[in-house]
Amino acid sequence: MARFSSKVVLVTGGGDGIGRATCLAFAREDAAVAIFDVRPEPAEAVADECRTLGARARAWRVDVSKAAEVDRAVSEVVETFGRIDVLVNNAGITRDAQLVKAKDGETLGRMSDEDFDLVMAVNLKGVFNCTRAVAPVMIRQGSGVILSASSVVGLDGNFGQTNYVATKAGVVGMTKVWARELGRFGIRVNAVAPGFILTSMTAKMPEKVLEAMKARTPLGRLGTPEDVARAYLWLASDDASYVHGAVLRVDGGIVVGT
Ligand code: NAD
Fold first, then answer.
1. What is the structure's pLDDT at 1?
2. How many Å is the Cα radius of gyration of the chain?
3. Distance separating alpha carbons of residues 60 and 40, to the nearest angstrom
4. Is 242 a catalytic residue?
5. Mutate which of 16, 202, 227, 251 to test ligand 1's pocket (most atoms within 8 Å of Cβ)?
6. What separation in angstroms does the CA of 176 have from each of 73, 98, 244, 248?
7. What is the pLDDT of residues 91-115, one digit of tens each?
8. Can you name the residues that pair with 110 across neighbouring β-strands?
9. d(Cα 48, Cα 91) in Å, to the nearest integer?
10. Catalytic residue among 4, 128, 164, 178
11. What is the Cα 118 distance to its own chain's centre?
């Protein structure tokens, strides 16, 4: 029997990249898949793909940074599928810039307030909004698994990513708080810290940066969305029944460096 038959999985940012691969991986294991994405068309397309695999699936247009939208959509997921067994807080964005860009003693630019606040709103507040909305459902059930996307850069730092790194370190912190607060209700809480994964997000990065990251990866390749999806699947499964408050690196052994 498939591991997730009769389970309901909610994936945020499920319309693309790692989120899409995660939806399909759970659908292949017979889970019902709820997809939240700010872009409705790709999310609907992934729901179609899940249904083609024989799974129940539905997409919601949700901006995870908006608490009222999240609360409403989570209620609709429960009305539609009856429960939520797994939440994957995957939605995330980048707005990269140096804190201060300077040459010959002259300041050429700064990270803007808008870029700092937007990345906070989606990557950090979004994870907070979704977990706060779903936790009461899981408490009522007496079970659940909450998984969130951190990043190796949230653990090691990275040039040009003050805002993003702050959110990914924040996700690690929230994971450890929620492990303490929610474990008593039978809810396991963990994070995944991917290395550099080939998606639309990394496609925006200069080729030479990606080559440098590959050179720093002992496995000699960048990751695929499926590499990360399989980690989510394992963490959500009973095979990980005593894994709690952990941050699992899925990074080919990368050493991010300077
Ligand atoms: P992606 O850009 O390919 O896909 C992200 C999805 O999130 C998109 O479908 C997008 O529409 C959706 N989204 C964006 N803002 C949203 C919002 N406000 N509300 C709802 N949905 C929203 O990204 P990805 O590379 O698959 O990354 C997925 C997650 O993994 C992110 O949290 C990212 O930070 C993290 N991550 C990615 C990498 C990598 O190398 N790609 C590495 C480490 C961590």
1. 63
2. 18
3. 7
4. no
5. 16
6. 26, 29, 9, 13
7. 999 999 999 999 999 999 999 999 9
8. 100
9. 19
10. 164
11. 16
